[in-house]
Amino acid sequence: MIEESAVLVGFLAAAVRISTPLLLAATGELISEKAGVINLGVEGAMLAGALASALGAAAGGPWYGVVMAMVAGVMVAALFAAVAIGAQADQIITGTAVTLASVGLTGAISRTAFGAAGPGLSLPTLPAVSIPGLSAIPILGPALFVQPLLGYLAWLLVPLVWWFLFRTQPGLALRATGESVESARAAGVPVRAVQVAATLTGGALAGLAGATLVLAQVGTFAEKMTAGRGFIAIAIVVLGRWHPFGVLLAALFFGGANALQFALQAMGYSVPYQFFLMMPYLLALLGLAGAVGKARAPAGLGR
Amino acid sequence: MRGALARSGAVALTALVVGLLVLALGLTAAGYDPLLALGALWRGSFGSWYALSSATLVRAVPLIILGLGVALAFRAGALNIGAEGQFYAGAIAATWVGVHAAGWPGPVAIGAVWLAAAVAGVVWMALPVLLKLRFGVLEVISTLLLNFVAEAAVSYAVTGPLQESKRIYPQSDPIAAAARLPLFGNTRLHLGLVLAILLALLLWALFTRTAWGFRLRAVGLGPLAAELSGGIPVKRVIGIALLWSGALAGLGGGVEISGVTYALFQNLSPGYGFTAIAVALLARLNPLGILFTGLLFGGLEAGAQGMQREAGVPAVAVQVAEATIILVIVLAEVVLRRRAAAGSRP
Lengths: 303, 346
Known about the structure:
heterodimer, A: mainly alpha
Protein backbone atom coordinates (compact mmCIF):
# COMPACT_ATOMS: atom_id res chain seq x y z
CA MET A 1 0.00 0.00 0.00
CA ILE A 2 2.75 2.40 0.97
CA GLU A 3 4.69 1.35 -2.09
CA GLU A 4 1.73 1.93 -4.38
CA SER A 5 1.15 5.46 -3.17
CA ALA A 6 4.87 6.14 -3.56
CA VAL A 7 4.60 5.08 -7.21
CA LEU A 8 1.56 7.33 -7.64
CA VAL A 9 3.31 10.32 -6.08
CA GLY A 10 6.34 9.67 -8.23
CA PHE A 11 4.14 9.45 -11.31
CA LEU A 12 2.26 12.68 -10.59
CA ALA A 13 5.43 14.56 -9.72
CA ALA A 14 7.08 13.37 -12.93
CA ALA A 15 4.00 14.28 -14.97
CA VAL A 16 3.99 17.82 -13.58
CA ARG A 17 7.75 18.17 -13.97
CA ILE A 18 7.76 16.99 -17.60
CA SER A 19 4.78 19.14 -18.51
CA THR A 20 6.26 22.40 -17.15
CA PRO A 21 8.61 23.28 -20.04
CA LEU A 22 6.01 22.06 -22.54
CA LEU A 23 3.38 24.26 -20.91
CA LEU A 24 5.63 27.33 -20.99
CA ALA A 25 6.61 26.85 -24.62
CA ALA A 26 3.07 25.99 -25.70
CA THR A 27 1.60 29.01 -23.90
CA GLY A 28 4.10 31.19 -25.76
CA GLU A 29 3.25 29.55 -29.08
CA LEU A 30 -0.45 29.94 -28.29
CA ILE A 31 0.00 33.69 -27.96
CA SER A 32 1.77 33.98 -31.31
CA GLU A 33 -0.65 31.63 -33.07
CA LYS A 34 -3.60 33.62 -31.71
CA ALA A 35 -2.02 36.57 -33.52
CA GLY A 36 -1.87 34.50 -36.72
CA VAL A 37 1.81 33.57 -36.54
CA ILE A 38 2.92 29.93 -36.55
CA ASN A 39 6.51 29.89 -35.31
CA LEU A 40 8.47 26.68 -35.89
CA GLY A 41 11.45 28.54 -34.47
CA VAL A 42 10.06 27.86 -30.99
CA GLU A 43 12.28 24.76 -30.86
CA GLY A 44 15.28 26.93 -31.64
CA ALA A 45 14.26 29.58 -29.10
CA MET A 46 13.91 26.88 -26.46
CA LEU A 47 17.33 25.46 -27.27
CA ALA A 48 18.91 28.92 -27.22
CA GLY A 49 17.19 29.54 -23.87
CA ALA A 50 18.59 26.30 -22.51
CA LEU A 51 22.15 27.21 -23.48
CA ALA A 52 21.83 30.82 -22.30
CA SER A 53 20.48 29.65 -18.96
CA ALA A 54 23.46 27.32 -18.54
CA LEU A 55 25.95 30.05 -19.44
CA GLY A 56 24.13 32.60 -17.28
CA ALA A 57 23.82 30.29 -14.31
CA ALA A 58 27.50 29.42 -14.50
CA ALA A 59 28.39 33.12 -14.56
CA GLY A 60 25.92 34.68 -12.14
CA GLY A 61 23.71 32.09 -10.52
CA PRO A 62 20.43 30.45 -11.53
CA TRP A 63 18.24 33.57 -11.68
CA TYR A 64 20.75 35.32 -13.91
CA GLY A 65 20.49 32.21 -16.08
CA VAL A 66 16.70 32.55 -16.21
CA VAL A 67 16.93 36.16 -17.39
CA MET A 68 19.55 35.28 -19.99
CA ALA A 69 17.34 32.46 -21.26
CA MET A 70 14.46 34.87 -21.84
CA VAL A 71 16.77 37.30 -23.62
CA ALA A 72 18.06 34.50 -25.86
CA GLY A 73 14.52 33.32 -26.62
CA VAL A 74 13.49 36.85 -27.55
CA MET A 75 16.54 37.23 -29.81
CA VAL A 76 15.76 34.03 -31.71
CA ALA A 77 12.11 35.07 -32.01
CA ALA A 78 13.23 38.51 -33.22
CA LEU A 79 15.15 36.92 -36.08
CA PHE A 80 12.04 34.95 -37.00
CA ALA A 81 9.84 38.03 -36.69
CA ALA A 82 12.14 40.15 -38.85
CA VAL A 83 11.99 37.67 -41.74
CA ALA A 84 8.52 36.18 -41.40
CA ILE A 85 6.57 39.23 -40.21
CA GLY A 86 8.77 42.15 -41.24
CA ALA A 87 9.44 40.83 -44.75
CA GLN A 88 6.35 38.59 -44.91
CA ALA A 89 8.39 35.52 -45.93
CA ASP A 90 6.98 31.99 -45.57
CA GLN A 91 6.49 31.32 -41.85
CA ILE A 92 7.05 27.55 -41.98
CA ILE A 93 10.32 27.73 -43.91
CA THR A 94 11.57 30.69 -41.89
CA GLY A 95 10.84 28.87 -38.63
CA THR A 96 12.63 25.74 -39.86
CA ALA A 97 15.68 27.79 -40.82
CA VAL A 98 15.70 29.64 -37.50
CA THR A 99 15.65 26.34 -35.62
CA LEU A 100 18.42 25.00 -37.86
CA ALA A 101 20.52 28.09 -37.12
CA SER A 102 19.88 27.71 -33.39
CA VAL A 103 20.99 24.07 -33.41
CA GLY A 104 24.22 25.06 -35.17
CA LEU A 105 24.86 28.13 -33.07
CA THR A 106 24.16 26.51 -29.70
CA GLY A 107 26.28 23.50 -30.66
CA ALA A 108 29.22 25.68 -31.65
CA ILE A 109 28.93 28.03 -28.66
CA SER A 110 28.56 25.22 -26.11
CA ARG A 111 31.63 23.43 -27.47
CA THR A 112 33.60 26.65 -27.35
CA ALA A 113 32.40 27.47 -23.85
CA PHE A 114 32.30 24.06 -22.20
CA GLY A 115 34.46 21.86 -24.44
CA ALA A 116 33.16 18.68 -26.07
CA ALA A 117 32.20 17.15 -22.73
CA GLY A 118 29.60 19.83 -21.87
CA PRO A 119 29.32 21.81 -18.65
CA GLY A 120 28.96 18.76 -16.44
CA LEU A 121 26.62 18.77 -13.47
CA SER A 122 28.28 21.73 -11.79
CA LEU A 123 25.61 24.33 -12.67
CA PRO A 124 23.81 26.05 -9.81
CA THR A 125 20.15 25.05 -10.18
CA LEU A 126 16.78 26.27 -8.91
CA PRO A 127 15.66 24.51 -5.73
CA ALA A 128 12.15 23.17 -5.26
CA VAL A 129 10.02 25.44 -3.08
CA SER A 130 7.38 23.69 -1.04
CA ILE A 131 4.28 25.65 -0.13
CA PRO A 132 3.59 25.26 3.59
CA GLY A 133 0.31 23.47 4.29
CA LEU A 134 -0.58 22.62 0.70
CA SER A 135 2.48 20.44 0.26
CA ALA A 136 1.24 18.31 3.15
CA ILE A 137 -1.85 17.18 1.22
CA PRO A 138 -1.44 13.46 0.67
CA ILE A 139 -0.35 12.42 -2.83
CA LEU A 140 -1.28 15.70 -4.62
CA GLY A 141 0.78 17.86 -2.27
CA PRO A 142 4.24 16.53 -3.08
CA ALA A 143 3.40 16.49 -6.81
CA LEU A 144 1.88 19.96 -7.19
CA PHE A 145 3.18 22.06 -4.33
CA VAL A 146 6.85 21.11 -4.16
CA GLN A 147 8.09 22.66 -7.38
CA PRO A 148 10.76 25.08 -8.51
CA LEU A 149 9.35 28.62 -8.79
CA LEU A 150 9.31 28.36 -12.59
CA GLY A 151 6.83 25.50 -12.27
CA TYR A 152 4.38 27.67 -10.31
CA LEU A 153 4.95 30.47 -12.79
CA ALA A 154 3.97 28.21 -15.70
CA TRP A 155 0.66 27.42 -13.97
CA LEU A 156 -0.03 31.03 -12.99
CA LEU A 157 0.52 32.14 -16.57
CA VAL A 158 -2.43 30.07 -17.76
CA PRO A 159 -5.26 32.12 -16.16
CA LEU A 160 -3.23 35.27 -16.77
CA VAL A 161 -2.98 34.60 -20.51
CA TRP A 162 -6.66 33.63 -20.60
CA TRP A 163 -7.59 36.90 -18.93
CA PHE A 164 -5.35 38.86 -21.29
CA LEU A 165 -6.64 37.17 -24.45
CA PHE A 166 -10.34 37.13 -23.64
CA ARG A 167 -10.91 39.99 -21.21
CA THR A 168 -8.70 42.86 -22.32
CA GLN A 169 -8.68 45.27 -25.22
CA PRO A 170 -5.14 44.39 -26.42
CA GLY A 171 -6.08 40.71 -26.20
CA LEU A 172 -9.06 41.35 -28.45
CA ALA A 173 -6.86 43.22 -30.92
CA LEU A 174 -4.44 40.28 -30.90
CA ARG A 175 -7.17 37.74 -31.60
CA ALA A 176 -8.67 39.95 -34.30
CA THR A 177 -5.26 40.11 -35.99
CA GLY A 178 -5.08 36.31 -35.95
CA GLU A 179 -8.51 35.98 -37.53
CA SER A 180 -8.01 38.49 -40.32
CA VAL A 181 -5.16 40.91 -40.74
CA GLU A 182 -7.16 42.98 -43.22
CA SER A 183 -10.21 43.48 -40.98
CA ALA A 184 -8.06 44.14 -37.93
CA ARG A 185 -6.07 46.73 -39.84
CA ALA A 186 -9.29 48.32 -41.07
CA ALA A 187 -10.39 48.56 -37.44
CA GLY A 188 -7.21 50.47 -36.62
CA VAL A 189 -5.15 47.68 -35.07
CA PRO A 190 -1.40 48.03 -35.72
CA VAL A 191 -1.31 44.44 -36.95
CA ARG A 192 2.39 44.01 -37.64
CA ALA A 193 3.33 45.46 -34.26
CA VAL A 194 0.82 43.14 -32.57
CA GLN A 195 2.23 40.10 -34.38
CA VAL A 196 5.81 41.05 -33.55
CA ALA A 197 4.94 41.60 -29.88
CA ALA A 198 3.11 38.26 -29.71
CA THR A 199 6.01 36.44 -31.36
CA LEU A 200 8.60 38.02 -29.06
CA THR A 201 6.49 37.12 -26.03
CA GLY A 202 6.33 33.57 -27.35
CA GLY A 203 10.12 33.61 -27.71
CA ALA A 204 10.58 34.78 -24.12
CA LEU A 205 8.38 31.94 -22.86
CA ALA A 206 10.20 29.41 -25.06
CA GLY A 207 13.48 30.66 -23.59
CA LEU A 208 12.00 30.23 -20.14
CA ALA A 209 11.00 26.69 -21.09
CA GLY A 210 14.61 26.00 -22.03
CA ALA A 211 15.77 27.42 -18.69
CA THR A 212 13.34 25.16 -16.85
CA LEU A 213 14.82 22.17 -18.61
CA VAL A 214 18.37 23.09 -17.63
CA LEU A 215 18.02 24.75 -14.24
CA ALA A 216 15.06 22.91 -12.73
CA GLN A 217 15.36 19.46 -14.23
CA VAL A 218 18.48 18.19 -15.95
CA GLY A 219 21.04 20.43 -14.27
CA THR A 220 23.26 20.64 -17.32
CA PHE A 221 23.24 21.56 -21.00
CA ALA A 222 23.63 19.05 -23.82
CA GLU A 223 23.52 19.70 -27.55
CA LYS A 224 20.03 19.33 -29.06
CA MET A 225 18.75 18.67 -25.55
CA THR A 226 15.29 20.06 -26.33
CA ALA A 227 14.81 17.00 -28.60
CA GLY A 228 11.75 18.32 -30.39
CA ARG A 229 9.92 19.62 -27.30
CA GLY A 230 9.33 22.87 -29.16
CA PHE A 231 7.59 20.98 -31.94
CA ILE A 232 5.58 19.01 -29.41
CA ALA A 233 4.55 22.34 -27.90
CA ILE A 234 3.12 23.29 -31.29
CA ALA A 235 1.15 20.04 -31.31
CA ILE A 236 -0.04 20.82 -27.76
CA VAL A 237 -1.46 24.14 -28.95
CA VAL A 238 -3.54 22.29 -31.55
CA LEU A 239 -4.46 19.60 -29.05
CA GLY A 240 -5.46 22.30 -26.55
CA ARG A 241 -7.68 23.84 -29.23
CA TRP A 242 -6.00 27.23 -29.13
CA HIS A 243 -7.25 27.90 -25.60
CA PRO A 244 -5.03 28.51 -22.53
CA PHE A 245 -6.83 25.99 -20.31
CA GLY A 246 -6.96 23.47 -23.14
CA VAL A 247 -3.22 23.93 -23.55
CA LEU A 248 -2.75 23.30 -19.82
CA LEU A 249 -4.73 20.07 -20.03
CA ALA A 250 -2.90 18.94 -23.16
CA ALA A 251 0.49 19.66 -21.59
CA LEU A 252 -0.49 17.73 -18.46
CA PHE A 253 -1.74 14.85 -20.59
CA PHE A 254 1.62 14.82 -22.29
CA GLY A 255 3.55 14.97 -19.07
CA GLY A 256 1.40 12.14 -17.73
CA ALA A 257 1.89 9.95 -20.78
CA ASN A 258 5.63 10.46 -20.57
CA ALA A 259 5.72 9.88 -16.85
CA LEU A 260 4.05 6.53 -17.42
CA GLN A 261 7.41 5.13 -18.42
CA PHE A 262 8.83 5.74 -14.96
CA ALA A 263 5.76 4.27 -13.32
CA LEU A 264 5.86 1.22 -15.60
CA GLN A 265 9.54 0.72 -14.95
CA ALA A 266 8.96 1.06 -11.22
CA MET A 267 6.26 -1.59 -11.49
CA GLY A 268 8.69 -3.91 -13.22
CA TYR A 269 7.45 -3.90 -16.81
CA SER A 270 10.34 -4.29 -19.21
CA VAL A 271 9.79 -2.70 -22.59
CA PRO A 272 12.75 -1.45 -24.66
CA TYR A 273 13.26 2.15 -23.57
CA GLN A 274 13.23 3.35 -27.16
CA PHE A 275 9.49 2.77 -27.27
CA PHE A 276 9.11 5.22 -24.42
CA LEU A 277 11.28 7.63 -26.38
CA MET A 278 8.88 7.34 -29.32
CA MET A 279 5.76 7.72 -27.24
CA PRO A 280 5.49 11.50 -26.89
CA TYR A 281 5.79 12.00 -30.64
CA LEU A 282 3.31 9.25 -31.49
CA LEU A 283 0.91 10.57 -28.87
CA ALA A 284 1.21 14.04 -30.38
CA LEU A 285 0.29 12.60 -33.78
CA LEU A 286 -2.68 10.71 -32.37
CA GLY A 287 -3.80 13.77 -30.47
CA LEU A 288 -3.54 15.93 -33.56
CA ALA A 289 -5.70 13.49 -35.53
CA GLY A 290 -8.32 13.64 -32.80
CA ALA A 291 -8.19 17.37 -32.20
CA VAL A 292 -8.13 18.83 -35.67
CA GLY A 293 -11.52 19.36 -37.20
CA LYS A 294 -13.23 19.77 -33.86
CA ALA A 295 -11.26 22.89 -33.07
CA ARG A 296 -10.85 25.92 -35.22
CA ALA A 297 -7.46 27.47 -35.78
CA PRO A 298 -7.21 31.26 -36.00
CA ALA A 299 -8.42 31.91 -39.56
CA GLY A 300 -5.37 33.90 -40.55
CA LEU A 301 -2.81 31.43 -39.15
CA GLY A 302 0.36 31.22 -41.22
CA ARG A 303 -0.54 33.99 -43.66
CA MET B 1 13.00 32.09 -69.44
CA ARG B 2 16.71 32.88 -69.62
CA GLY B 3 16.04 35.91 -67.44
CA ALA B 4 14.46 33.69 -64.83
CA LEU B 5 17.45 31.37 -64.88
CA ALA B 6 19.91 34.24 -64.52
CA ARG B 7 17.84 35.64 -61.66
CA SER B 8 17.82 32.25 -59.89
CA GLY B 9 21.58 32.09 -60.30
CA ALA B 10 22.03 35.59 -58.93
CA VAL B 11 19.79 34.82 -55.93
CA ALA B 12 21.65 31.58 -55.23
CA LEU B 13 25.04 33.27 -55.45
CA THR B 14 23.94 36.12 -53.17
CA ALA B 15 22.57 33.63 -50.66
CA LEU B 16 25.81 31.66 -50.68
CA VAL B 17 28.00 34.73 -50.22
CA VAL B 18 25.82 36.09 -47.41
CA GLY B 19 25.78 32.66 -45.74
CA LEU B 20 29.56 32.41 -45.79
CA LEU B 21 29.89 36.01 -44.60
CA VAL B 22 27.62 35.35 -41.64
CA LEU B 23 29.63 32.23 -40.85
CA ALA B 24 32.90 34.19 -41.02
CA LEU B 25 31.49 36.97 -38.82
CA GLY B 26 30.19 34.44 -36.30
CA LEU B 27 33.55 32.68 -36.20
CA THR B 28 35.35 35.98 -35.69
CA ALA B 29 32.97 36.87 -32.87
CA ALA B 30 33.54 33.47 -31.27
CA GLY B 31 37.29 34.08 -31.30
CA TYR B 32 38.36 31.91 -34.25
CA ASP B 33 40.59 33.01 -37.10
CA PRO B 34 38.04 33.28 -39.94
CA LEU B 35 40.63 33.08 -42.74
CA LEU B 36 42.14 29.92 -41.31
CA ALA B 37 38.67 28.43 -40.86
CA LEU B 38 37.43 29.34 -44.34
CA GLY B 39 40.71 28.11 -45.81
CA ALA B 40 40.19 24.78 -44.07
CA LEU B 41 36.61 24.77 -45.35
CA TRP B 42 37.93 25.16 -48.91
CA ARG B 43 40.68 22.55 -48.54
CA GLY B 44 38.26 20.04 -47.06
CA SER B 45 35.70 20.48 -49.84
CA PHE B 46 36.92 21.56 -53.27
CA GLY B 47 40.62 22.16 -52.64
CA SER B 48 41.93 18.83 -53.88
CA TRP B 49 40.83 15.94 -56.06
CA TYR B 50 40.75 13.70 -53.01
CA ALA B 51 38.54 16.12 -51.03
CA LEU B 52 36.21 16.62 -53.99
CA SER B 53 35.82 12.94 -54.88
CA SER B 54 35.98 11.25 -51.50
CA ALA B 55 34.37 13.83 -49.23
CA THR B 56 32.32 16.42 -51.11
CA LEU B 57 30.75 14.19 -53.76
CA VAL B 58 30.14 11.38 -51.27
CA ARG B 59 28.12 13.81 -49.15
CA ALA B 60 26.48 15.36 -52.19
CA VAL B 61 24.84 12.06 -53.18
CA PRO B 62 22.39 11.80 -50.24
CA LEU B 63 21.83 15.57 -50.33
CA ILE B 64 20.86 15.44 -54.02
CA ILE B 65 18.53 12.46 -53.59
CA LEU B 66 16.89 13.91 -50.46
CA GLY B 67 16.81 17.36 -52.04
CA LEU B 68 14.90 15.91 -55.00
CA GLY B 69 12.47 14.31 -52.57
CA VAL B 70 11.92 17.58 -50.72
CA ALA B 71 11.51 19.47 -54.00
CA LEU B 72 8.90 17.01 -55.24
CA ALA B 73 6.70 17.63 -52.19
CA PHE B 74 7.35 21.39 -52.05
CA ARG B 75 6.35 21.69 -55.72
CA ALA B 76 2.89 20.48 -54.75
CA GLY B 77 2.89 22.94 -51.84
CA ALA B 78 3.29 20.10 -49.33
CA LEU B 79 6.10 20.84 -46.90
CA ASN B 80 7.89 17.58 -46.10
CA ILE B 81 10.19 18.50 -43.19
CA GLY B 82 10.63 14.82 -42.39
CA ALA B 83 13.17 13.69 -44.97
CA GLU B 84 15.50 12.91 -42.06
CA GLY B 85 13.05 10.37 -40.65
CA GLN B 86 12.31 8.83 -44.04
CA PHE B 87 16.07 8.57 -44.65
CA TYR B 88 16.41 6.59 -41.41
CA ALA B 89 13.42 4.37 -42.25
CA GLY B 90 15.09 3.61 -45.59
CA ALA B 91 18.42 2.94 -43.90
CA ILE B 92 16.85 0.46 -41.45
CA ALA B 93 15.09 -1.47 -44.23
CA ALA B 94 18.20 -1.40 -46.43
CA THR B 95 20.35 -2.80 -43.63
CA TRP B 96 17.84 -5.52 -42.86
CA VAL B 97 17.80 -6.68 -46.49
CA GLY B 98 21.53 -6.09 -46.95
CA VAL B 99 22.70 -8.32 -44.10
CA HIS B 100 20.62 -11.17 -45.55
CA ALA B 101 21.88 -10.72 -49.11
CA ALA B 102 24.98 -12.91 -48.88
CA GLY B 103 25.42 -15.00 -52.04
CA TRP B 104 22.89 -13.03 -54.09
CA PRO B 105 23.98 -11.71 -57.49
CA GLY B 106 25.20 -8.12 -57.08
CA PRO B 107 22.53 -6.31 -59.11
CA VAL B 108 19.77 -8.28 -57.38
CA ALA B 109 21.16 -7.55 -53.93
CA ILE B 110 21.59 -3.84 -54.66
CA GLY B 111 18.19 -3.63 -56.31
CA ALA B 112 16.55 -5.33 -53.34
CA VAL B 113 18.29 -3.01 -50.86
CA TRP B 114 17.24 0.10 -52.77
CA LEU B 115 13.69 -1.12 -53.27
CA ALA B 116 13.34 -1.95 -49.56
CA ALA B 117 14.66 1.51 -48.68
CA ALA B 118 12.25 3.31 -51.02
CA VAL B 119 9.29 1.25 -49.78
CA ALA B 120 10.24 2.02 -46.17
CA GLY B 121 10.26 5.72 -47.04
CA VAL B 122 6.76 5.41 -48.50
CA VAL B 123 5.54 3.51 -45.43
CA TRP B 124 7.05 6.18 -43.17
CA MET B 125 5.18 8.84 -45.15
CA ALA B 126 1.89 6.94 -45.18
CA LEU B 127 0.85 8.16 -41.72
CA PRO B 128 1.40 11.89 -42.43
CA VAL B 129 -0.48 11.51 -45.72
CA LEU B 130 -3.36 9.76 -44.00
CA LEU B 131 -3.44 12.36 -41.22
CA LYS B 132 -3.36 15.22 -43.72
CA LEU B 133 -6.01 13.92 -46.09
CA ARG B 134 -8.33 12.38 -43.50
CA PHE B 135 -7.94 14.72 -40.53
CA GLY B 136 -6.33 17.84 -41.95
CA VAL B 137 -3.20 17.56 -39.79
CA LEU B 138 -0.43 19.81 -41.14
CA GLU B 139 2.17 17.60 -42.82
CA VAL B 140 4.83 19.96 -41.50
CA ILE B 141 4.17 18.91 -37.92
CA SER B 142 3.50 15.22 -38.55
CA THR B 143 6.60 14.64 -40.68
CA LEU B 144 8.69 16.59 -38.17
CA LEU B 145 7.45 14.55 -35.21
CA LEU B 146 8.16 11.29 -37.05
CA ASN B 147 11.83 12.29 -37.36
CA PHE B 148 12.21 11.71 -33.64
CA VAL B 149 10.35 8.41 -33.83
CA ALA B 150 12.71 7.30 -36.60
CA GLU B 151 15.76 8.18 -34.51
CA ALA B 152 14.39 6.11 -31.64
CA ALA B 153 13.62 3.27 -34.07
CA VAL B 154 17.25 3.27 -35.25
CA SER B 155 18.40 3.20 -31.65
CA TYR B 156 16.10 0.23 -31.01
CA ALA B 157 17.19 -1.57 -34.19
CA VAL B 158 20.91 -1.35 -33.44
CA THR B 159 20.53 -2.48 -29.84
CA GLY B 160 17.86 -5.08 -30.64
CA PRO B 161 16.88 -6.96 -33.78
CA LEU B 162 19.61 -5.58 -36.04
CA GLN B 163 22.48 -5.45 -33.54
CA GLU B 164 25.77 -7.01 -34.66
CA SER B 165 26.09 -10.70 -33.89
CA LYS B 166 28.87 -10.01 -31.35
CA ARG B 167 26.37 -7.82 -29.44
CA ILE B 168 28.98 -5.38 -28.18
CA TYR B 169 28.46 -2.10 -30.01
CA PRO B 170 25.14 -0.45 -30.88
CA GLN B 171 25.52 -1.01 -34.61
CA SER B 172 24.41 -3.55 -37.18
CA ASP B 173 26.50 -6.23 -38.86
CA PRO B 174 27.96 -5.00 -42.15
CA ILE B 175 25.76 -5.73 -45.15
CA ALA B 176 26.76 -8.54 -47.53
CA ALA B 177 29.50 -7.72 -50.04
CA ALA B 178 27.03 -8.36 -52.85
CA ALA B 179 24.85 -5.46 -51.69
CA ARG B 180 27.69 -2.92 -51.65
CA LEU B 181 27.96 -0.39 -54.45
CA PRO B 182 31.02 -0.38 -56.70
CA LEU B 183 33.44 2.50 -56.07
CA PHE B 184 35.00 4.78 -58.69
CA GLY B 185 38.75 4.11 -58.99
CA ASN B 186 40.50 4.43 -55.67
CA THR B 187 38.11 7.06 -54.28
CA ARG B 188 35.28 6.60 -51.79
CA LEU B 189 32.80 7.79 -54.40
CA HIS B 190 30.22 5.14 -55.28
CA LEU B 191 27.68 4.32 -57.95
CA GLY B 192 25.02 6.26 -56.04
CA LEU B 193 26.21 9.40 -57.82
CA VAL B 194 25.00 7.99 -61.14
CA LEU B 195 21.64 7.17 -59.56
CA ALA B 196 21.38 10.71 -58.17
CA ILE B 197 22.06 12.24 -61.59
CA LEU B 198 19.58 9.92 -63.32
CA LEU B 199 16.91 10.72 -60.74
CA ALA B 200 17.47 14.45 -61.25
CA LEU B 201 17.08 14.08 -65.02
CA LEU B 202 13.98 11.93 -64.55
CA LEU B 203 12.32 14.41 -62.19
CA TRP B 204 13.24 17.30 -64.46
CA ALA B 205 11.52 15.53 -67.36
CA LEU B 206 8.51 14.73 -65.18
CA PHE B 207 8.19 18.31 -63.93
CA THR B 208 8.62 20.04 -67.28
CA ARG B 209 7.41 17.56 -69.88
CA THR B 210 4.37 15.80 -68.43
CA ALA B 211 0.82 16.67 -67.49
CA TRP B 212 1.52 15.27 -64.03
CA GLY B 213 4.30 17.80 -63.52
CA PHE B 214 1.96 20.57 -64.59
CA ARG B 215 -0.76 19.44 -62.17
CA LEU B 216 1.81 19.29 -59.37
CA ARG B 217 2.79 22.88 -60.03
CA ALA B 218 -0.80 24.05 -60.37
CA VAL B 219 -1.66 22.53 -56.99
CA GLY B 220 1.45 24.06 -55.43
CA LEU B 221 0.64 27.52 -56.73
CA GLY B 222 -2.99 27.51 -55.65
CA PRO B 223 -4.87 24.40 -54.56
CA LEU B 224 -8.25 26.11 -54.65
CA ALA B 225 -7.82 27.46 -58.18
CA ALA B 226 -6.46 24.09 -59.35
CA GLU B 227 -9.50 22.33 -57.96
CA LEU B 228 -12.13 24.81 -59.12
CA SER B 229 -10.97 25.89 -62.55
CA GLY B 230 -8.51 23.15 -63.43
CA GLY B 231 -10.58 20.21 -62.26
CA ILE B 232 -7.47 18.73 -60.64
CA PRO B 233 -7.96 16.15 -57.86
CA VAL B 234 -5.91 18.21 -55.40
CA LYS B 235 -5.88 15.73 -52.52
CA ARG B 236 -4.69 12.92 -54.74
CA VAL B 237 -1.95 15.01 -56.30
CA ILE B 238 -0.69 16.12 -52.88
CA GLY B 239 -0.89 12.60 -51.43
CA ILE B 240 1.02 11.06 -54.31
CA ALA B 241 3.64 13.81 -54.28
CA LEU B 242 4.23 13.24 -50.56
CA LEU B 243 4.50 9.47 -50.96
CA TRP B 244 7.03 9.76 -53.80
CA SER B 245 8.88 12.33 -51.74
CA GLY B 246 9.09 9.75 -48.95
CA ALA B 247 10.25 7.11 -51.42
CA LEU B 248 13.13 9.31 -52.58
CA ALA B 249 14.23 10.18 -49.05
CA GLY B 250 14.04 6.51 -48.05
CA LEU B 251 16.07 5.58 -51.11
CA GLY B 252 18.65 8.13 -49.99
CA GLY B 253 19.03 6.16 -46.76
CA GLY B 254 19.43 2.92 -48.70
CA VAL B 255 22.08 4.43 -50.97
CA GLU B 256 24.02 5.68 -47.94
CA ILE B 257 24.00 2.19 -46.40
CA SER B 258 24.91 0.39 -49.62
CA GLY B 259 27.51 2.91 -50.76
CA VAL B 260 29.14 4.52 -47.73
CA THR B 261 28.69 3.02 -44.27
CA TYR B 262 27.67 -0.62 -45.11
CA ALA B 263 26.16 -0.73 -41.62
CA LEU B 264 23.46 0.96 -39.56
CA PHE B 265 24.26 3.02 -36.48
CA GLN B 266 22.87 6.01 -34.62
CA ASN B 267 23.58 9.49 -35.99
CA LEU B 268 24.15 7.98 -39.41
CA SER B 269 22.91 11.25 -40.89
CA PRO B 270 24.50 14.57 -39.92
CA GLY B 271 21.13 16.20 -40.55
CA TYR B 272 20.96 15.43 -44.29
CA GLY B 273 17.16 15.68 -44.16
CA PHE B 274 17.29 19.29 -42.99
CA THR B 275 20.16 20.33 -45.21
CA ALA B 276 18.17 18.87 -48.12
CA ILE B 277 15.55 21.58 -47.55
CA ALA B 278 18.21 24.22 -48.14
CA VAL B 279 19.46 22.24 -51.16
CA ALA B 280 15.99 22.18 -52.71
CA LEU B 281 15.16 25.81 -51.92
CA LEU B 282 18.50 27.13 -53.17
CA ALA B 283 17.82 25.35 -56.48
CA ARG B 284 14.31 26.87 -56.43
CA LEU B 285 12.96 23.32 -56.60
CA ASN B 286 14.54 22.74 -60.02
CA PRO B 287 15.88 19.14 -60.23
CA LEU B 288 18.84 20.09 -62.44
CA GLY B 289 19.67 22.95 -60.11
CA ILE B 290 19.61 20.49 -57.21
CA LEU B 291 22.58 18.67 -58.79
CA PHE B 292 24.60 21.85 -58.29
CA THR B 293 23.23 22.93 -54.92
CA GLY B 294 23.64 19.35 -53.66
CA LEU B 295 27.28 19.48 -54.70
CA LEU B 296 27.65 22.87 -53.03
CA PHE B 297 26.16 21.72 -49.73
CA GLY B 298 28.11 18.47 -49.95
CA GLY B 299 31.15 20.73 -50.09
CA LEU B 300 29.94 22.74 -47.09
CA GLU B 301 29.38 19.57 -45.05
CA ALA B 302 32.74 18.09 -46.08
CA GLY B 303 34.47 21.42 -45.50
CA ALA B 304 32.91 21.65 -42.05
CA GLN B 305 34.72 18.45 -41.11
CA GLY B 306 37.94 19.98 -42.45
CA MET B 307 37.27 23.12 -40.40
CA GLN B 308 36.86 21.00 -37.28
CA ARG B 309 40.10 19.08 -37.98
CA GLU B 310 42.29 22.02 -38.92
CA ALA B 311 40.85 25.04 -37.15
CA GLY B 312 39.04 23.42 -34.23
CA VAL B 313 35.72 24.97 -35.28
CA PRO B 314 32.78 22.73 -34.33
CA ALA B 315 31.37 21.28 -37.57
CA VAL B 316 27.79 22.13 -36.53
CA ALA B 317 28.65 25.81 -37.01
CA VAL B 318 28.15 25.32 -40.74
CA GLN B 319 24.43 24.89 -40.08
CA VAL B 320 24.37 28.61 -39.35
CA ALA B 321 25.56 29.24 -42.91
CA GLU B 322 22.93 26.82 -44.23
CA ALA B 323 20.16 28.51 -42.28
CA THR B 324 21.31 31.94 -43.46
CA ILE B 325 21.18 30.71 -47.05
CA ILE B 326 17.57 29.53 -46.58
CA LEU B 327 16.60 32.87 -45.01
CA VAL B 328 18.21 34.91 -47.80
CA ILE B 329 16.34 32.82 -50.37
CA VAL B 330 12.91 33.20 -48.78
CA LEU B 331 13.61 36.93 -48.50
CA ALA B 332 14.62 37.08 -52.18
CA GLU B 333 11.40 35.26 -53.09
CA VAL B 334 9.45 38.00 -51.35
CA VAL B 335 11.34 40.76 -53.15
CA LEU B 336 10.93 39.07 -56.54
CA ARG B 337 7.22 38.44 -55.92
CA ARG B 338 6.64 42.07 -54.93
CA ARG B 339 8.55 43.29 -57.96
CA ALA B 340 6.50 41.01 -60.21
CA ALA B 341 3.29 42.25 -58.61
CA ALA B 342 4.34 45.87 -59.06
CA GLY B 343 5.35 45.21 -62.67
CA SER B 344 2.05 43.59 -63.61
CA ARG B 345 0.01 46.52 -62.38
CA PRO B 346 -1.47 48.59 -65.19
